[in-house]
Design a protein that fits this description.
alpha+beta, 5-stranded mixed sheet
Length: about 280
């Protein structure tokens, strides 16, 4: 049987938010059993659960009682991959720091803090039948399985060379080496549009991979098909909002945060529960 886990000690990171361009400080602290992963912003507690998603435009944003936290997906992906079930995530700012655009700095911070096993059993979530969601040409599905896997397939209208498929398999794929280093990416024409609209104020060549079709990259790729692996990273982070260890195979084609969240919502709808363990966590 699998036990819950938390951090051994607190650890902090700071940096700029890629969308807001503002500085922020994030502190990851240990938390008791059945606490879950929760953000604290200006005294407001926001559970890292899919019910609290308020926006999926270019990142995943959670909100509650007037407070919000943006760009949670890279951090949650790292916490899920390291099986940290319980953590208090204190944010001084409005957006999780983008750091280098990947989950690697979060993995390094978790490694620095250390992980401690707790007594209570870890919550798990499995399926009875396949769940499928679609949005135009994008599709995401979850199938019953005894283990956890994530497959992302990338297809781009403006970049045929970007067609790829990457799979993370629990117990087989090395998340730290294969998934965590994959940086957020954008096409050069998207960057120009974002900047013209006053967006992506914190974006730079230090925290994003810029792609100029057909075969130019702003910096050398860290791993082969890095853009596709980043989609795997994002799926894992968004589905971590189910707040449980998942026993299912996930796959998505042309996915983004909006479709990832829709898949998480559909999975919860199949279970008949609005959250995994809120009853216990209300007591904390």
């Amino acid at each position: 049987m699998t036990r819950q886990r938390t951090l051994k000690r607190a650890v902090s990171l700071q940096g700029v938010g890629i969308h807001s361009g503002t500085q922020a400080r994030l502190t990851l602290e240990p938390a008791p059993e059945n606490f879950g992963r929760r953000f604290r912003i200006n005294g407001v507690s926001i559970p890292a659960q899919v019910e609290y998603v308020i926006d999926t435009s270019r990142c995943t944003t959670l909100g509650f009682e007037g407070a919000k936290v943006s760009t949670v997906e890279h951090l949650l992906s790292a916490l899920y991959a390291t099986e940290v079930d319980n953590a208090l995530l204190i944010l001084e700012g409005i957006e999780i720091p983008i750091l280098d655009g990947s989950a690697l700095p979060f993995m390094e911070a978790i490694g620095e803090a250390g992980i401690e096993e707790q007594s209570a059993l870890a919550p798990t979530l499995s399926l009875k039948e396949e769940v499928v969601v679609q949005d135009k040409s994008a599709t995401a599905c979850a199938k019953p399985d005894v283990t956890y896997s994530v497959t992302a397939t990338t297809e781009f209208d403006a970049w045929s060379e970007g067609a790829a498929s990457c799979t993370f398999q629990e117990g087989t794929t090395d998340y730290l080496a294969q998934v965590a280093p994959a940086r957020t990416f954008a096409f050069d024409f998207e960057v120009r549009q974002l900047l013209a609209a006053g967006l992506a104020q914190g974006g730079s060549l230090e925290n994003a991979l810029i792609i100029t079709p057909p075969n130019e990259f702003s910096t050398p790729l860290r791993i082969e098909q890095e853009w596709c692996w980043h989609k795997v990273l994002d799926i894992m982070g968004d589905l971590a909002l189910l707040d449980a260890r998942l026993k299912m195979s996930l796959s998505a084609i042309r996915t983004g945060h909006r479709l990832n969240v829709h898949l998480a919502q559909a999975i919860l709808a199949q279970t008949g529960r609005t959250s995994i363990s809120n009853e216990a966590r209300r007591l904390c």
